[in-house]
Design goal:
Helix content is 43%, strand content 12%. It has helices at 3-9, 25-38, 45-49, 56-67, 73-91, 103-112, 126-133, 156-165, 179-187; strands at 12-15, 116-120, 141-143, 172-176, 191-195, 206-208. The protein has a 6-stranded parallel β-sheet, sandwiched between helices. Bound molecules: 6-O-phosphono-beta-D-glucopyranose and magnesium ion. 6-O-phosphono-beta-D-glucopyranose binds at residues 17-18, 28, 51-56, 59, 84, 121-125, 145, 178.
Amino acid sequence: MNIKSLIEDADAIIFDLDGVLVNTAVFHFAAWQRLAETFGFEFSESDNEHLKGISRMDSLDIILTWANVQATPKERLAFAEQKNIWYLEFIEKMTEDQLLPGSIELLNYLRQSGKKIALGSASKNAKMILNKTGINEYFDAIIDGNSVTNSKPDPEVFLLGARQLNILPNKCLVFEDAQAGIQAAINAGMKVIAVDRAQLLTSYDARVEGLTEIQYS
Ligand code: BG6
Ligand code: MG
């Protein structure tokens, strides 16, 4: 199915944030890499692919396993807090320049087409990022890492979005850049468009390399 028909068929669009609307995946990578270095573990970009869409604590646990580091619950919290401090150093300087190309055009098109718009992100920093980049007013519902107990690929974040918009899951279309997020959308019974520059993802309904690829006329 082509992208325009997928959008036309949907009553609501649910966006992942990091790597779909904003260019923050690079900041997550840099902050995790800095933490991994303190464990003497070389954290590569391909390692980072596995962490996309995964919550902060779950990501930390994966890195600790890879690095073969044992940590107490208190140390785990301190490591996650340190990673977030480094991450926020980037986020604090964010402006609309970090919006990925095509984001505003798509959000405007959806609004003009009368679609409901929700955010479905694993990030606890999502609201700050929406404010910094000036796109918060586009969203009819914001579901983030503070609103859910189960991480993607659990469908909770997207089902909660659909419920808050009062739209049935099968009338929702998700934009995702992570395999865990694609699986979460499928588990929610939603259609999903992969935003996938590196052609690493599978099981989507359609794929774009970036949002500028979408044709509106
Ligand atoms: C997801 C990112 O959107 O949010 C992950 O893809 C990140 O890389 C997760 O770990 C949690 O983000 P935060 O901002 O709460 O640490
Ligand atoms: Mg993402």
